[in-house]
Amino acid sequence: MMLETETVTRTGVETLGPINPWIKGIAEKPLNGNRPRIVTILPRGEAIRNFVYTGALDEVAREAEVTLLSVMPNSELEDLVRARYRNVFQLLDIQEKWVVRSIREVLDMAHGRWLWSKAAQERWRLRDDEANTSSLRLKRWAKKLACYPFANRAGLDLLSKMERTSSRRFRTTERYVRLFRKLKPALVFNGSHVHSRVAIQAVQAAQWLGIPTAAFLFP
Fold first, then answer.
1. For the whole prediction, is pTM greater than 0.90?
2. Is the pLDDT of residue 31 over 60?
3. Which domains does the chain have, with CATH numbers?
4. Are 67 and 38 in contact (CB under 8 A)?
5. What is the distance of C-alpha 98 from the center of its chain?
6. How far is 137 from 103, CA to CA, in rounded Å?
7. Residue range 66-80, pLDDT digits in tens
8. Cα–Cα distance between 188 and 161 in angstroms, integer?
9. CA 172 → CA 93, 97, 161, 168, 175, distances in Å?
10. Closest Cα to residue 163, out of 100, 217, 213?
């Protein structure tokens, strides 16, 4: 998803060392004499593995006040993160309006088609395979036809503006807006790639409030 985030691209868990100083650089800037607050979003199991189990977030927590927004696959994980970090909130999969979902899906497809990396080609193939009935194949072809004209920089910029406008106008929750207004974080960091649907409303809430955002991208 073409969200307006600063991105930090790395490959694999072994690169978590180099990214820590980058996050800590923000943490070392005091906010009104107090430790800055960083909200970390963990929308997938691999993000939990990469940032909790490796101890990466523990290092950041030495320099900043870390708030965790995470999916909770099981009670054991919830107990673990609540024992490590003072502020922990469950990341919820919130249903959005169909118009927002439709624009976002076309944007995602157009972005993948523009990149056309091996990962994008594999996602494209998997979605083709999932369209295993006449009705699903027809819908799949309609979405393809809709995305092709936008598979370029100008088209992606236009769709991104449409997606941001529609998601803000038709948003179905104020949960994250209220939370960020209360926390006043210096940074909202998405620990997984920006295609994680469950993280979108939280990331966009930060952007609406003018809070710096960043994403850790895996190719």
1. no
2. no
3. 6-94+173-217 (3.40.50.2000), 98-168 (no CATH)
4. yes
5. 20
6. 19
7. 999 999 988 888 898
8. 21
9. 11, 8, 19, 9, 9
10. 100
